[in-house]
Amino acid sequence: MKGRGALPLLALLLVAAFLASLAFGELRLSPMQVLDALFGRGDELTRTVIWDFRLPRTLVGLAAGAALAASGTVMQAFFRNPLADPGLLGVSSGGALGAVAVLALGPSLGLAAASLWTLPVASTVGAFGATGAVMMLAERGASTERLLLSGVALNALLGAGTSFLLTITAGHFEVNAQILFWLMGGLENRSWEHVWMGVPVIALGCALLLPLGRGLNLLSLGEQSAQSLGVDVHRLRRKLIVLATVLTALATATGGIIGFVGLVVPHVLRLVWGPDHRRLLPAAMLGGGTFLLACDLVTRLFPIGLRLGVVTAVVGGPFFLWLLRRPR
Question: Is residue 1 included in any domain, yes or no?
């Protein structure tokens, strides 16, 4: 897995997960039917299922998985801690509060049905608002420890706000159900609007992260060591925080709260690949997309009310506990 064939292997796994995501569902399709539909051939029903329903869902899942895994890789290197994840600085909690506020208060303000973009935009604004204080600290040269403590405090505060909104909507069962479904993550009913609002920017953010692999390698040695080797540490940290925030915010805005992807995927790949971020970053993007598509496939193959966030937690929770038990 540490050889040159690892990236092509991950790419093949991603292609397999991509095709499986298009083939399985209430209407099961053969690989040839999927390929025919993608190239505009086949019957009209198959083309409609692929192009109007499954392809947008698959593209959003692929992009969200790649974004969360890339962001998790950055956070683990940034804090030099394998237990760091994309939500550490309050991005996911801020996105959750923004979305829940629209779902809870939107009907009374006439916002909920105003546009398909309302919920993702509110989630994105909440995510960036939550990390605004952290960014201010970063611009002033705050230490990594202070950034981490600020993120912990923000997560607690924003979580309390989300809980309060859930409390005041307790009597509105339909609204409460929408909030709970969103908080558990999912790719149902994804459309091309969701693709255009998230996938291009996520692709750009991932592309901008790739050249920073060498800087991440040096930063993981410690700030003083990196600076002595010619790295502009403050500038690099700002770039990393901005890109990680953008990726996590858009993944949360388009797919809801999906945990453990940014924790599990980078750490597994680091164990089998090594700590070189020049290779680890692209591997995490491929692995994150594959992992999320596979988890989403589970929710469709076993239609018993499973949510995507539940499946990723079932996989990630035991892995997290195993990490805690391992010697450093």
Answer: no
